[in-house]
Amino acid sequence: MAGAESGWHFSQILVITMQPSNFRLATDILGALICGGHSTRFGSDKRVYRVGEKSLFEISHENLNKVCHDVVCVFRDNVPHCFQKYNFIHDDLEAKGPVAGILSALSFSKKPYVLTLPCDMPSMSKDILYELCRHKSLDKISVAYSQRLEPLVAVYPKAFYEKLKRYTVEESFSLERFINALSSGEKRLIHHDKALSFKFTNLNKRPIFAPFYENWRLY
Fold first, then answer.
1. Residue 211 vs residues 48, 53, 216: alpha-carbon distances, Å
2. How far apart are alpha carbons 83 and 71 in whole angstroms?
């Protein structure tokens, strides 16, 4: 089992076999769209890259809006003019990488939970986000797993802000290392079948077959 190989105890693993049918829009969870910075590997600002009729940013923002009543977008520095109509904040500049966005969202949130999603995951399903929200816990980070840990698709309790901040100062900026270092009572793995692993694909490089990709029904 992947969970066992990763050092997770079976009691921490929830295998998702059913899709939610009666989930209500979450009012106690802040949706945080992690927008990153300069898209160096992509070659241009991937946030405005269009998949079909919508940009990567718009697709991910809409997915969060289907789950959370309130959504904030977290940018590293520059906010493109086309995104300035959305609620936005900036990264915690004392940190590096995606953890900087999560720290900023946790600090900003007036709600007890923050649901995170990167802006470059266009195949993500709202049902996966629903399941994370359904299994939220004030004393646990609920994180998606599909062949590997997905620390950017997770529900972080606001109470974990200080612990995460301290870890970035004393240890590492790696979210995966942080979660793996937590005790068994502080994390919950929401396991998804490997057939759904494509939904967690990050679009880090411009697709080789761009016309095909842009017209593909992603969700």
1. 16, 12, 9
2. 13
Helix (H) or strand (E) holding 30: strand 26-36
- At position 28, the amino acid (one-letter code) is D
pTM (2 decimals)? Answer: 0.82
Alpha carbon of residue 27 to chain centroid:
18
Amino acid in position 3: G
Strand, coil or helix: what is 61?
helix
Q: What is the pLDDT of residues 17-63, one digit of tens each?
A: 334 456 688 999 999 999 976 555 665 677 777 887 888 889 999 99
Residues of the chain with pLDDT under 70: 1-23, 37-44, 204-219
Domains of the chain: 2-202 (3.90.550.10)
Cα distances (Å, whole numbers) of residue 177 to 27, 87, 172, 182, 203: 30, 30, 8, 9, 23
Torsion, Cα 163 151 102 20, to 10 degrees, reads -110
pLDDT at 36: 77
Cβ(201)–Cβ(154) below 8 Å: no
Strands 141-145 and 149-157: what pairing? antiparallel
Ranges of beta strands (E only) in 87-134 are: 88-90, 113-118
